[in-house]
């Protein structure tokens, strides 16, 4: 600041011209003098040192609650009366930006016995964080499998395959899945049907072959939440089960069959996408003929008691067994399928629960946060 009042002309002086320093430059003082730590700012200009309010509050609180002997060296003990204020200070200020539990930086300077627990509780209950931060945890709650049916075609799952290229006047497939045998029925439709048309298609193509089921699982499409659908099923004595919104895993078996049917049609109709309706019967036969990992047998064998073949039978295979033997074999098959389904359900639940936490327990009148993303 002193030299700013002068005007200097800066010029370059090469090193070859820098001769030995003159005597004045080599003068030094051999006398030891004490260094006075006097501030360069005059005392008249000094108003007060910069002190955070929270530090001043800590100083006042320490007079009533001195620091315990176990306080680590280099860290400051915080009395109980100031702890909430101190946690709020590095978390809620605009310069902090609501950091996470491990990023407040309090442990580098401050200490008290329950510091980590108190910080975790405060940050976890911060309303601003709950509303503005994206959740990083997996969905809460353990897997709850659907109940295992007692026999074939009593518990169904239904869904639509839509937006297909036009083929024989059809653009949609109604997929009906038996949750016991994993057998499916594929019903081509000219478009996305209404609730009444969906119920009539099920009655025409499924109920008349296997009887009226006990329960039908579906998503929350407009056909399945309408009053017409509920009234139709109520008159037939069928209970209606809807999956959770934006949670297709609730009807995962149906979603898996949809993928398999789509893969089959792409394999055989990729060069002729307008002919997929011709291959629907073949896709249904293929899907029902393949062995399923949950039942360890094909849907055909589970429902009929035998595995049909596409090739002609030999003469020895044409002799039909007795009716009683057929019924007994069917019952044994169903018992084996039931046990296989239970084991498969246990395996799936164990695998899914390995990466999940327990569901939170709520009581009536509890205040909870509701996500509006969907």
**Global geometry:** elongated
Distance between the termini: 63 Å
Gyration radius, in Å: 39 Å
Average of per-residue pLDDT values: 83
- Return the CATH class of the domain at 155-308: Alpha Beta
Number of DSSP strand runs: 7
Task: Name the quaternary structure.
Answer: single chain
CATH superfamily of the domain at 155-308: Ribonuclease H-like superfamily/Ribonuclease H
Range of strand content? 5-15%
Q: Examine the coordinates and then state which fold CATH places here, giving the name of the CATH topology of the domain at 155-308.
A: Nucleotidyltransferase, domain 5
Give the helices and strands, then pairings.
Elements: H1 53-64, E1 76-77, H2 83-92, E2 110-111, H3 115-124, H4 127-132, E3 155-161, E4 172-178, E5 184-189, H5 195-210, E6 215-218, H6 227-236, E7 239-242, H7 252-269, H8 280-289, H9 299-304, H10 323-353
Parallel strand pairs: 1-2, 3-6, 6-7
Antiparallel strand pairs: 3-4, 4-5
Features:
Integrase_H2C2, 7 strands, 374 residues, Gypsy retrotransposon integrase-like protein 1, alpha/beta, Integrase_cat-core, Endonuclease III, domain 1, nucleic acid binding, RNaseH_sf
